[in-house]
Design brief:
Elements: E1 19-21, E2 34-39, H1 54-63, E3 68-70, E4 76-78, E5 81-86, E6 92-97, H2 111-124, E7 134-141, E8 144-149, H3 156-159, H4 170-173, E9 194-200, E10 204-209, E11 223-228, H5 232-240, H6 253-260, E12 266-268
Parallel strand pairs: 2-11
Antiparallel strand pairs: 1-12, 3-4, 5-6, 6-8, 7-8, 9-10, 10-11
Helix pairs in contact: 5-6
Amino acid sequence: MRLTRRILMGAVGSAMALGVMAGSPQAEPRHGGELVIISTQAPRHLNPAVQSGIATGVPGTQIFASLLRYDGEWNPQPYLAESWEWAEDGLSLTVNLVQGAVFHDGEPITSADVAFSIRTIQANHPFQTMFAPVEDVETPDEHTAIFRLSRPHPALLLALSSALSPIIPEHVYGDGQDVADHPANSAPVGSGPFRLAEFRPGEQITLERFDDFFIEGRPYLDRVVIRIVRDPSTLVLAMEAGEADMLPYFAESQGIRRLQGVDGLDYTSRGYVASAPSPGWR
């Protein structure tokens, strides 16, 4: 079964993405199907803990879960963290993890993985300053992580979102190798709704449904396929022919105008309001 077509395009020069979407967004969700994404932007690897950009972020946020998610109104939502609480002085944040969540290899996710992930991000991520006030992450038990801060830092909650703070497995990345160049970056073990099935750098990324995902009933899709297409005109032709469902961050104005005239395609300015335009994927 194939999804009703959905496409996103982005316009350079704006902090928002212009998107094209086909089918009713109010349609009743159903299980099964495949989402095909096409883009000119190719990720170097798939680990958002050590690499920034949309190219890594798009597949990475599906492969890796984070402590929090955000809704369309910028309200934090539970994800791997089922609850969290600030201390009155703002110098510590206590996070309570969901129980029963596992990585794609079946190993349980614990507070030790959270502490390891934050240390890794602090040492490697291009936006590591977002965790500058974090002095330590204590792990009093397997399902509790306490962030100790040198000063109040309310933006920490935003930093705990999917594209910025994936929770990576210590039992994979903590083997003494340099995490920035770890072979698992191209064959990641995550805990998100999809697991990596195939990564052909510069060509295609195929993700498949993770049946043991900790949110019951999710994901709906069976597969997500990201195809790298370097030529913008080829992207437009693929969209016109119905060969793809999503075109994110498309910057070619003539192509955007052309696709706006195609029956069954809708466009939107929503989708990337938190990210500035960039010439490359994460």
